[in-house]
Specification:
single chain; alpha/beta; Isopropylmalate Dehydrogenase; 2 domains; eleven-stranded mixed beta sheet; globular
Length: 332
């Protein structure tokens, strides 16, 4: 089966050019069928003659802007993201990738595609770099601001399935984000969640913010309010550290010499912190596959988001999630 991916060609901050270029880059590396959704008058001139027969285009004149309300997306049936999601709903595509309005993408994916069997709420997943040169799975990072213990417990199960199927980890370790490792720490919701998760195979208990980056566990669970704060704060810290390093190097002749020797190290560090390396965040728990990419995504980010969508579809993670959620928490 060749995977078909619907791509919102109009959603990013910079128009269709980086999205089309990212699609072209993906086509050179991966076997899939891209469906670009948007204004054909703007998309077609960006596609080289040799690729025109490899890319389908679905016309969509409307574009949901970043300032529009997410709930409006359900009414704007001619928008590029609505039509891209509906391609998955109608089984014409296996997954959707969008760098557009993230709230609109999540709303449409949840409402139009529907939730997997047993799933109470879908969750947005991101991958954080850690000291073990791997990635820590963090969820939820923005789909659900307010959560109940049952929601967080399901996030733990879904995150474990994701780590197992996407990263090949046999029994992923799962931690519940709290303000201390002791079982007594946390708020009332995390304390109740701890009780639910205690029998879960792979659950190690509470973890703290530093554990995201030291690789103590494979999966970290929290509500979308906390997760989004953690994600945005981490992005800010990474950007500040990069800026300070460049500033110190510029001011010190000795540092300039050292920087020349450390160029490869800096290059690897930048790669670890670059969101384009991951490509996007999957909304897990919905039927099909939905990848939410950064609005400022460059071609590299789109290429990697498409690769992530292909891998997600091929992994069978949705079937795994449904099976594991047949019980409130699958015990070891």
């Amino acid at each position: 089966m060749r995977v078909r991916i619907a791509i919102d060609a109009m959603g990013g901050d910079f128009g269709p050019e980086p999205i089309v270029n990212g699609t072209l880059a993906a086509l050179k590396l991966y076997r899939f069928e891209p469906i670009l959704v948007g204004k054909s008058s703007e998309i077609l001139p960006l596609i080289p003659a040799g690729f025109k027969d490899k890319i389908s285009i679905v016309e969509a004149e409307d574009v949901i802007g970043m300032s529009d309300a997410a709930t409006d997306a359900l009414k704007r049936k001619e928008s590029s993201i609505y039509k891209a999601v509906d391609l998955v709903r109608n089984k014409e595509a296996h997954g959707v990738v969008s760098a557009g309005h993230s709230g609109a993408t999540m709303t449409l994916a949840t409402m139009r595609l529907g939730r997997l069997k047993h799933v109470l709420r879908p969750a947005l997943v991101t991958l954080m770099p850690n000291k073990k040169q791997k990635r820590t799975v963090l969820l939820d990072v923005g789909a659900n601001v307010d959560c109940k213990p049952d929601h967080l417990a399901q996030f733990a199960v879904m995150g474990s399935c994701y780590a197992h199927d996407m990263w090949g980890i046999n029994i992923p370790t799962v931690g519940l984000l709290a303000n201390g490792e002791e079982e007594s720490k946390g708020n009332e919701i995390t304390k109740e969640t701890f009780k639910i998760l205690k029998p879960m195979k792979g659950f190690v208990g509470n973890v703290e913010g530093r554990d995201l980056f030291n690789g103590t566990v494979d999966v970290v669970v929290c509500d979308g309010f906390i997760g989004n704060l953690v994600l945005k704060s981490s992005e800010g810290v990474a950007s500040t550290i990069t800026h300070l390093i460049k500033d110190y190097i510029r001011k010190s002749p000795v540092a300039i010499t050292g920087a020349l020797l450390m160029r490869k190290v800096f290059k690897l560090l930048k790669k670890e912190l670059d969101y384009a390396e991951v490509g996007g965040a999957p909304l897990i728990g919905v039927k099909g596959c939905a990848i939410v990419s950064h609005g400022k995504s460059n071609p590299k980010a789109i290429k990697n988001a498409i690769k992530q969508a292909i891998d997600y579809v091929d992994s069978g993670v949705n079937v795994h999630i449904e099976k594991m959620l047949e019980e409130p928490v699958k015990k070891g």
